[in-house]
Amino acid sequence: MVKRLLLASLLALSAWTCTDQRSHTQAVYMLVDTSGTYAQEVGKAQIIINYLLGTLQPGDSLAVARVKTRSFSEKDIIAKVTFDSRPSQANAQKRAFRDKIDAFVKSVGGSAYTDITGGLIQGGMFLNETGAGRKTILIFSDMQEELDKVTIRNFPISLKDIRVVALNVVKLKTDNIDPRRYMVRIEAWQKRVEKAGASEWVLINDIEHLDRMLQS
Amino acid sequence: MSNEFWMIWPGNAVASALILFAIAMPFLYAARKLMHNLLHSVGHMIGGPLRLGARWLFATARDMNERNKVVLLAHGREEVGQHIEREFERIGTLVTRDLEGYPALQRKLLEEITRVEEDYKKCGEVPPPPPEWVEAVTAIAKVKSEGGNEMVQRILEEIKRSVHSIHDKALADYRRAYESRHKILNGFMPFWRSLDKTFGQVDKKLTGLHDTSSKIDAQMEKYEQINKKTDKAEHALTVSAFTQFAISTLVLLIAVGGALVNFKLIALPFSEMVGAGDYLTSTLRMSDVAALVIIFLEATMGLFVMETLRITHLFPLIANMNDRMRRRMLWTAIVFLFVFAGIEAALALMRDMLSADKQALIRSLATAQQVAPPDPLLRMIPTTAQMLLGFFLPFALAFVGVPLESFVYSLRTVGGAFVVMLIRATAFVLRVLGNLIRQLCRVLIGIYDVAIVLPLLVERLVKAARSEGDASESRPVKRAA
Fold first, then answer.
1. Residue of A117, A83, A91 whose CA lies nearest to A189
2. Residue A143: CA atoms inside 13 Å, Cβ hemisphere, count?
3. Which residue, A115, B233, B292, B375, has fewest beta-carbon neighbours within 10 Å?
């Protein structure tokens, strides 16, 4: 009887341990808009990246890419890392990442156009490759997309099971004249992102509330 | 509109219902007996099994109670038996230790008493009484010396001188004799003290024996009560079990708190060893599980130490081992405990280093300015405290076996009593439900009859008229008869 019970417990335990094979890591892809006057906001982006470095756990992934005239390219990724599962190594990686970002912030320059869609596609691909359980794209931009005549972005994109968070969406001069333009712009992006299969759309303009940025 | 299909009088629900009721009344009257039977059957059908179930549950509760009582008394008998055994062992040790030297003590006492007796006798020896010539001297002293008889005067003077010298000698003898007696009496003192001390020792030992025997008497009485299976014994054992349960639960909760502190100390450094990315469930990391396993292993080793020391008796296999094997097991468990304690101390140090590293990183991320490092002494105190905690907590956890044993044994009684109470409560509810349903059916029968009161009234009138008619028909016959 005792043997049977032990065997049953072992089987139950093994079954229980085998059931949860999902990935519990988190991957974050942050797009930093460096076009036009928005490049001046890059200091805020640095604060957000530092917050992410302090919050993300060993095993998580983080990539920071810039949004410029055409952003669908690996070359636009400023820094990317998958943190080691050992906390000490992860801390060392975070320090190195911070140094890269510091260097980028010092050397950042504005671009003529803003290709947010290209950055989103690139981000989606990167996140899917990480195989993380929770995927988030952070868009640090005014969400005003401006493409040159050659660039084609008016096609459906896929952001399946990815959270999209728009950060620091500042109001433009034209928005101040007619606030409806701002509302319409935000709404259009929300619709586009949701149509692309994103799990959630979040807008955070106050960087004091960054805790909403990542899924718990 | 569809809800009004039944309305004979459209728009007037009350009138429609009344008309329908009037139409239905003859049918209801016709079906009266059938409906009564149906309601009776439904009442029996539902109420019967419920009452049966209640009866079965009450019987089960009684059986369980009996079984619980048997287990409780058996456990109590075993416990009291062990207690008595221990008291006998204690009294055996007392008798061996104290009464083993009793013949020597008695000899010493007798010797001291004999010596005191002899000395006492010596004290009783008095110097011999004054010689008989004292009387002769007294007679001469009465001779009249009037007239200045010189001869007599001289004789008397001589006698006086002799008597004085003899008196002085006798007095000196007496003084010497009393001095020697005082010396003897003075010499009594150490013997009296020794006697007093010896008697005190004897008294103390006998009192200890008496106390132990009183305890045995009390335990024996309890044992007899248990053997007689009296309600008093059962009640006492149940109360004791509940008290034990409460105390052991409290102590176990404290131990769980200690284990949590221990867990906090080693969980983070474990993620450095087994990685922080593997999860067992959505919230449980492998590193956390590994830390918990270490804590459970420590508790288990502590339990083995307690078992091999025969403080707890959770594993009969360990209790029945021979002494050599048991000692080996004890040392193995102690060595393991020391190894775990050492590992924990090292992990606590590692945790402190990792925390410091993370804090430094967060500080550097939060501000561009370099913050001065904290005072080394201030850093050293928590580090040392953590290491000490890490080292000593496994040993503290080792004692968890003692409350655990009490908890396990008392849980049988408390759990049994709780289950019996639960079964009784369920049985009561079933019984009440059964009765309620039967009564409800009776009430429904009454309501049914109230609903068809008009046909029933008619029936009664018809019956009354018929019986009157029968009576009037039979009356002339009776008269004729």
1. A117
2. 26
3. B375
Q: Output the six-digit token pair for B445.
A: 């029968």
Q: Does B366 touch chain A (CB under 8 A)?
A: yes
Contacts of B268 in chain A (CB under 8 A): 87
Say yes or no: ipTM exceeds 0.85.
no
A19-33, A89-103, B318-332: least confident range: A19-33
Burial of B105 (0-12, 13-18, 19+ CB in 10 A): middle
Q: pTM to 2 decimals?
A: 0.64
Q: Is the pLDDT of residue A56 over 60?
A: yes
Please answer yes or no on whether A25 and B277 come within 8 Å at the CB atom: yes
| Pairwise CB contact (< 8 Å): B364 & A98 | yes
pLDDT of B26-61, one tens digit each? 899 999 999 999 999 999 999 999 999 999 999 999
Please state whether beta strands A61-67 and A26-33 pair in parallel, antiparallel, or not at all (unpaired).
parallel
Query: pLDDT value at position A13?
Result: 55
> What's the pLDDT tens digit per position in B341-384?
999 999 999 998 888 888 888 888 876 555 666 677 777 888 89
Which among B276, B282, B361 has CB closest to A59?
A: B276
Walk across the sheet containing A200-204 and list its strands: A77-82, A61-67, A26-33, A134-140, A162-167, A200-204
CA distance B95 to chain A (A): 46
- For chain A positions 46-75, those within 8 Å of chain B (CB to CB) are 50-51, 53-54, 57-59
What is the CATH architecture assignment of A26-212?
A: 3-Layer(aba) Sandwich (3.40)
Domain residue extents for chain A: 26-212
CA angle B70, B76, B81 (to 5 degrees): 125
Mapped onto helix, strand or coil, the DSSP state of residue B127 is coil
Amino acid at A192: R
- Angle at which helices B286-308 and B231-274 cross, to 10°: 140
